[in-house]
Amino acid sequence: MIVAFSISPAAGDETGGVSEAVAEAIRVVRASGLPNETNAMFTNLEGEWDEVMAVVKQAVDAVAAVSPRVSLVLKADIRPGYTGQLAAKVERIEQALSD
Q: Which of 35, 40, 81, 87 supports an S-S bond with 46, CB 3.0-4.6 Å?
């Protein structure tokens, strides 16, 4: 499965920024060893249901350590029997665009 998720504290720092708290969540994701990528809006993570959801929970907990309220947005692509789709899905789109 692939999940795209975004975690943010309810309030930012004195400038309204949330990058420090979000960085803590991304550290958790990268330390997991699961295939992942982060862009301006979401972090994508690939693996089995239980391992992916455990990482998402740990990332939420990391943000909750610095904020009493946390926002989580999550979208999942659940396709049993398929792995390596984090890159493969993009490659198929790029191939279709070049045809």
A: 35
